[in-house]
Amino acid sequence: MPTEPVWLDQTTAAYLDRLRPSGAPRQPLGSAVIRCMVAEDGTLFACFAESETPPGRRYGQAAVRAAALYRMRVDGAYAAFVGQAIEVRISWT
Fold first, then answer.
1. What is the number of alpha carbons within 13 Å of residue 63 lying toward its C-beta?
2. 86 and 36 in contact (C-beta within 8 Å)?
3. Looking at the DSSP assignment, which residues form a beta bridge with residue 30?
4. How far is CA 35 from CA 28, 31, 72, in A?
5. Of 36, 84, 28, 86, the residue nearest 57 (C-alpha)
6. Which of these ranges, 8-22, 36-50, 68-82, has the smallest mean pLDDT?
7. pTM score above 0.85
8. String of DSSP letters for the chain
9. Of 60, 62, 81, 61, which is closest to residue 71 (Cα–Cα)?
10. Model pLDDT for residues 45-79, shown as the tens digit of each residue
11. Is the sign of the CA dihedral 19, 22, 24, 25 positive or negative?
């Protein structure tokens, strides 16, 4: 099984900017690590935030919303990801 996902679809910087938590400053930059399950079609579901930086700024919630736009490769050797939990880091730059 490959160790890293190959993303077929993911969010854009412009969309992430729209998801930036209200009142969050542009600096310092924010990020979150979310854990999601992988569906048969490569989309992510049952996501939750594991961590966020800076803490308490709701970047974790925003990252969970962004996960709806992610889809990974699940054919061939990548099919082993289906039904598994993966971590995804999402950063606001």
1. 24
2. yes
3. 92
4. 23, 14, 14
5. 28
6. 8-22
7. yes
8. --SS--EEE---HHHHHHHSPTT--SSS-EEEEEEEEE-TTSBEEEEEEEEEESTTSSHHHHHHHHGGG-EE--SGGGGGGTT-EEEEEEEE-
9. 81
10. 999 999 999 898 899 999 999 999 999 999 999 99
11. positive
Q: 86: burial class by Cβ within 10 Å (0-12, 13-18, 19+)? A: middle
Residues 62-83, buried b or exposed e (16+ Cβ, 10 A)? bbbbbbeebbbebeeebeebee
The token pair at 87 is 């971590």
| Rounded Cα gap, residues 40 and 83, in angstroms | 7
